[in-house]
User: What shape does this take?
Amino acid sequence: MQRILPVMTKMDLSTLSQKFRGCMLGSLLGDCLGAPYEGDSSVSKAVLQQYFDKIEGPPFKAPIKQYTDDTAMTKCVAESLIDCRGFDPQDMAKKFVKEFFASPRRGYGQNVVRVFMKLKDQKCEDPFGPAKEQFDGAGSLGNGGAMRVAPVALFYHQDYPALIEKARKSALLTHTNKLGRDGAILQAIAVYQGLQSIPSEGIDATTFIKELMNKMHEIEDDDYGVEMEECRPYQKQLSVALDLLDADGSPDDINTKVCDLLGTNIAALYSVPTAVFCFLRALRPIPDIETENPFRRTLQYAISLGGDTDTIASMAGAIAGAYYGQSAISESLQRHCEGHAEVMDLADRLMAACNKP
Assistant: This one.
């Protein structure tokens, strides 16, 4: 397979700033807007259309959509990278623990809570240790490392090898299973590719996926264990996503295949490629989603699939935001999401920190 070398496109600082903000906002909005539908096997397209239309419409008095553990941990990742001028596992672990105990009702899973409890007990002296003990030493294969990795992709956007290594290590704080780690890496690469692409020049979905497959080819190997049917499962899932982009059939049939083949659950293997697919499918109009805004279309489509709606929409939103930039994101959508001003500030500080000599 021919290797496609990652090369960061040169762009002015104003454009880059818009993309940093778009990425962080996209992650937040996907989380906040997807959370009310988490766990639903499917979401009524008509109900979802009304939901988005109302939020994006004229200002109205209503409760702000709260963010979940996805955003809480993403903020910790960004703050740690800013404070330490790079990845510091002990500092990041301390920020996770502090955030959890300050606001524990954000929807954290019990497995990661156990990691945080152990980290607190040992004062984060061994930040990678507790995660290694999960699932009798097998580690977690969930999407928790992927859901929070966007700030890593932003901070290391000028150093691709470091981006890969830090994405891997940031996941290891809670997810040591190779499927969980590689899911975080795939999401980081997808955000990176969105960041370096220019909307005015367009984006080719097939090329985008093939570049991801080439890059994952260098990362995946055959040490998953004999229980895995495929030694390179993320490339397989990306290949499925590529086929589904051009599949024939009714919209409902295609969506059923997306859910059945790509998945919509908490496993990284069955959610990160789905998020990538949602971003790419939303590049063009989607039946029953009435909006001309492709960023909104990305979130609305991701949520419509059901399942782990907040995390999949958050990951898809991070990729879409990195591509389209803040200017494509409705201010009304932003206003109805908790923490939108805070994540924009984090985006600005991330950019300032990673561009300092």
Summary: The chain has one domain: 14-354.
